[in-house]
Amino acid sequence: MLAMPSQIEIYEEMTTLSARMVEAARSNDWDSLIELERSVSALRLRLAEDDESARLASVERERKAALIQRILADDAEIRRHTEPWMEQVRQFLGGSRKKRQVDQAYGAHSI
Q1: What CATH number is attached to the domain comprising 18?
Q2: d(CA 77, CA 87)
Q3: Which domain holds residue 95?
Q4: pLDDT (tens digit, 9 = 90+) per residue, 23-77?
Q5: Is 56 within the bounds of a domain?
Q6: Which of 25, 56, 72, 84 is most enclosed, with most CB atoms within 10 A?
Q7: Distances in whole angstroms, Cα of residue 73 to Cα of each of 91, 98, 102
Q8: How many domains does the chain have?
C-alpha cells in the first residue's frame, strides 16, 4: 500500500505547479493554465480532507508558511497576466450582449 504524501509534500507539489502556471500565463497558454489549475485544485481538496497542521513540527510549519507565500506570489503574478485578458473577454462578451439587445429592440433581423 502506498503511503499518502505528507502535507508538506502536497504544498511542495502545489508550489511546483504554481510556478508552471506562471510560465503558462506569461506565454498566454490558457489551456495549460487551466489544466494546471485543475491539478492544484485536486491537491487543495486533498489538503482539506486531512488537516495535519496541529501535528506539524515548528520547522515544518515554517516550511509550510514559506511554500504558501511562494504560491501566493505566483498567484499574484498569474493574475497580472490573466486579468487584462479577462477584461478583454468581458468587454467582448458585454459588447456581444449589447449588440443582441439592440438587435432585438430594433428588429435588426426582421428586415
Answers
A1: 1.20.58.380
A2: 16
A3: 7-106
A4: 999 999 999 999 999 999 999 999 888 766 667 888 999 999 999 999 999 999 9
A5: yes
A6: 25
A7: 27, 37, 43
A8: 1
Return the C-alpha cell found at 96: 456581444
DSSP codes of every residue in 25-93: HHTT-HHHHHHHHHHHHHHHHHHHH---GGG--HHHHHHHHHHHHHHHHHHHHHHHHHHHHHHHHHHHH
Distance between CA 78 and CA 2 in Å, rounded? 34
Structural domain contains residue 2: no
Q: What is the DSSP letter of 108?
A: T
Asked whether residue 73 is assigned to any structural domain, the reply reads yes
Residue 95 has pLDDT above 80, yes or no: no
Asked if 69 and 14 touch (Cβ cutoff 8 Å), the reply is no
Dist. CA 102–CA 95, nearest whole Å: 10
Residue 65 lies in a domain: yes
